[in-house]
Design brief:
Blueprint: E1 2-3, E2 9-15, E3 18-25, H1 29-43, E4 49-52, H2 58-75, E5 79-82, E6 93-96, E7 99-104, E8 107-112
Helix pairs in contact: 1-2
């Protein structure tokens, strides 16, 4: 499980849907993912890959998607994705300046919020596969500037 929507990056290893091991990195996603997976793949054989496909940091989402899609193809295992609201208790996710992504009734939109919102994402203790689907293209969703 990979969450790379904002810093820090979170990677979790699940066995029978339970979080068995977790790793956090404040490095750039492009630096952290290869290092973490180089280490993790020495002792783990993934059967499926899961990630948060957005919204959030455009570059981190793009890098995570390309990295995990490539790994999925190379290992011959499926890739599944969910939106990031699953991992932050449905709180707003920062877009730019005072603009935040919010999810209401399964619709993600942008709203201006006057007060800064805490950006905290966490790996669930139990991985609920019902929250994931095989639509894995990133949710970039940034408005034109």
């Amino acid at each position: 499980m990979v969450i790379s929507l904002s810093s820090p990056l979170h990677v979790g290893i699940y066995e029978h849907h339970r979080l068995m091991d977790s790793h956090t990195s404040y490095e750039h996603t492009s630096e952290a993912l290869p290092k973490l997976f180089d280490t993790l793949l020495q002792t783990n054989t993934p059967k499926r890959l899961f990630f948060a496909r957005g919204p959030g940091s455009f570059m981190s989402i793009k890098i995570s998607y390309i990295f995990l899609k490539t790994l999925s193809i190379a290992l011959g295992i499926p890739l599944y994705a969910s939106d990031g609201f699953v991992f932050n208790e449905g709180r707003p996710i920062k877009a730019i300046r005072q603009l935040y992504f919010v999810k209401c009734d399964d619709v993600i939109e942008t709203r201006i919020l006057e007060l800064p919102q805490e950006q905290y994402f966490s790996l669930p203790e139990i991985l609920d596969e019902k929250n994931f689907g095989d639509t894995t293209e990133p949710l970039y969703m940034l408005p034109a500037v």
